[in-house]
Amino acid sequence: MLSLSFIVPFMILLPSFVSATAINGPSRSELKNYYTRSHSLGDNYKFDSREWHSVNVTNLDYKYDQPLQERDKKAPGTENTGSKNMGGTISHLINDIWNGLKGLGKSETVKITWYTGHDLLNPSCWANSEWAPTDHSFACALTLEGWESQPKCFKFLELCNGPQKCVFVRVVDSCAGCAPGSKHVDLTRGAFSQLAEVDKGVLNVQMRQASEPNTWYEELWGPRH
């Protein structure tokens, strides 16, 4: 179950949700802002050391120079557009937060870096796609091979730099320059910056898989299927 501290930031934003709804109808932009900000697991949240495993990773400075691999694609989903009335809109937004993206299951410790520029192009989770993440997307690239428990393409992950700074990202690419068997998570600049200053470059964080959002933002996560 989500902690109260996880929901509080959203509740603080409710006045702006109501205002936007009264004037313009349902505000997708406000919900999008929620997904592009770090969230907290709560002041009292404690990571269980029995669920974490240390791994080794190096800084990433690579070019995706290996052939693209076609991966299994997720089935098409239906976007939840919400209600047209104010009460329905607020209920819809709360439902998106409560039943949408949230961390699931056991976690492991990984080290993260960030990538930008031409490395964002041609994400390997699609055989052919015109879409590519930008610095403002919330997406990541993982080790190309040898990571036996590696999350699959299109899965969502929750990454936490302590319990107070967590973000959700979607797996969209592979890291051809990462050492086989190592657990690398290379983030877009926007996602990394919600966990730490980009000048930090490399740091340890906690990672676990996450559920899928109810409302979809292609600019953040790429095509749904």
UniProtKB/TrEMBL annotation:
Pfam families: DPBB_1. Keywords: Signal. InterPro entries: Expansin_CellWall, RlpA-like_DPBB, RlpA-like_sf. Residues 1-20 form the signal peptide. Residues 159-206 form the RlpA-like protein double-psi beta-barrel domain. This is Non-Catalytic module family EXPN. It comes from Pyrrhoderma noxium.
